[in-house]
Write a structure and sequence with these properties.
mainly alpha; Serine Threonine Protein Phosphatase 5, Tetratricopeptide repeat; elongated; disordered N terminus; TPR-like_helical_dom_sf; coiled coil; Tetratricopeptide repeat-containing protein
Length: about 375
């Protein structure tokens, strides 16, 4: 009887500590990133309970990080990227390394740390290009190219950005909806639209903004659809189609209610403000201009907080490297001192031995001289 009770206790504890990870639930959380990131975070946090598998932890950390990026909360997103980086120290699987590097590069790109982003993308590309052909390699090479495009776009190098984004798009089209690829292709299309917009090629821009909205709608990625309409409205504003632009911005507002994306909200309010100003609707202009200024300030504060944290993390990493170098120098110095001491003692002993030998020879020579005289 006691043995039976003991077995029951063991089974009850194993039930308590059982992993909560579920692939179907993960896919649902992944699909919610662009339409309901709060729900995505909630599901991921639930699956994290008692999770020990490194592969599952990396997937969930990455998911939570991206959900915060979807809300432009870079400070909290960075926390989860740092958890991934800590976990990566024991990772040997090259695919997992690529996933971690990809998530880290997205984080730094969103924070505007372009040189760091490109550095990580170079490392990721080296690993990814050596993997066997398949959906994983194709997809992450596409993401790598597209992220480079986003860096060049932020540097106003729109021609090069366009080239990299179009390459990334072609890669991602080949993998179907592998790992949320369709939703990400909407992001690529949106940014391609803006590259054409900044190059004043408005007809091409309109084509890609519309395509971005269609793709986002097909996977119910409401925030991405809202971004596409926001981009299209800006295109219409440049063409003087102010009422059409306002109608699109209203659609964006309705689609983005669950998201809380500060960058999206800022763009929408600026769009309303610019178009109402052009139409000389002063009341609406004042309302939306005020909202634009407030949202812009909130977004800048959020980015500043995450940037400060990133600087702190970078300083810690640099200090750690400096300390490691100091320890190496201490070890090298100790070895040099030890070898020098051994050599000095060896030469000293040799000198003493040689001196004694010379002394003995001198004494013998003196004795011989005495005898001969």
């Amino acid at each position: 009887m006691k043995r039976f009770i003991f077995i029951l206790i063991i089974f009850s504890f194993t039930g308590i500590f059982k992993s909560q990870y579920n692939e179907q639930l993960y896919k649902k959380a992944l699909s919610d990133i662009y339409q309901n990131p709060d729900n995505s975070q909630k599901m991921a946090q639930e699956m994290l309970k008692n999770e020990k598998n490194p592969d599952n932890l990396i997937k969930l950390y990455k998911l939570i990080s991206h959900s915060y990026i979807s809300k432009r909360d870079f400070d909290k997103s960075l926390d989860w990227v740092l958890k991934m980086k800590e976990l990566s120290k024991n990772v040997t699987n090259p695919e997992q390394k690529v996933k971690i590097l990809n998530a880290t590069s997205i984080q730094y790109q969103q924070m505007g740390l372009n040189s760091k982003t490109l550095e990580i993308l170079d490392e990721s590309y080296q690993i990814c290009s050596q993997l066997p052909d398949g959906k994983f390699r194709t997809y992450y090479l596409g993401l790598n190219s597209a992220l480079r495009g986003l860096v060049y776009k932020s540097q106003d190098n729109n021609e090069l950005a366009l080239e990299k984004l179009l390459i990334g798009l072609e890669y991602v089209k080949k993998v179907g909806n592998y790992d949320n690829a369709i939703a990400n292709s909407s992001v690529f299309l949106y940014n391609i639209g803006y590259c054409y917009f900044y190059l004043k090629r408005y007809s091409e821009a309109e084509k890609y903004f519309k395509k971005s909205a269609e793709v986002a709608k097909s996977v119910q990625a409401e925030s991405l659809e809202a971004f596409a309409y926001k981009g299209l409205s800006e295109n219409f504003t440049a063409l003087g189609k102010h009422q059409e632009a306002i109608d699109l911005l209203k659609k964006s507002v309705n689609l983005s209610k669950k998201v809380g994306d500060l960058v999206l909200s800022e763009g929408i309010y600026k769009g309303f403000s610019d178009n109402y100003l052009a139409l000389q609707d002063w009341n609406n202009y004042e309302v939306y201009n005020k909202l634009y200024i407030e949202t812009k300030f909130a977004r800048e504060q959020s980015e500043l907080a995450s940037l400060n944290k990133s600087i702190d993390v970078q300083n810690q990493e640099n200090n750690k490297k400096i300390e490691e170098q100091k320890n190496r120098l201490r070890i090298i110095s100790a070895i040099i001192i030890l070898i020098s001491s051994i050599l000095f003692i060896w030469f000293l002993l040799k000198f003493i031995k040689h001196k004694k030998r010379n002394q003995l020879l001198l004494e013998k020579l003196n004795q011989i001289n005495k005898i001969t005289t």
